[in-house]
Amino acid sequence: MKEEKLQCFICNHQDSSGIALLNAFICNRCERKIANTNPNHIKYNLFKEKIKLLWAKGLQL
Question: pTM for this structure?
Fold first, then answer.
């Protein structure tokens, strides 16, 4: 049986393993990057903005 691939809300790539958060999918790779990114790193703000969008989208459901 073939695993269903979902589009990651953070990076937009298709993957079959990750987490569901507020009806959105976050791939394992992005999940690890989010968890391990230092708040002083420039990518931290990118992740923060994407998560804000995810929450806003989830609250509209």
Answer: 0.81
Q: Using DSSP, state whether 27 is helix, strand or coil.
A: strand
**For residue 41, what are its two tokens?**
């790193």
Confidence of residue 19 (pLDDT cuts 50, 70, 90): very high
Cβ atoms of 10 and 50 within 8 Å: the answer is: yes
Give yes or no for a contact between 6 and 31, defined as CB atoms under 8 angstroms apart: no
Residue 1 has pLDDT above 70, yes or no: no
Of the candidates 52, 27, 28, 47, the residue with the CA atom closest to the CA atom of residue 37: 47
Distance CA(31)–CA(60), nearest Å, equals 23
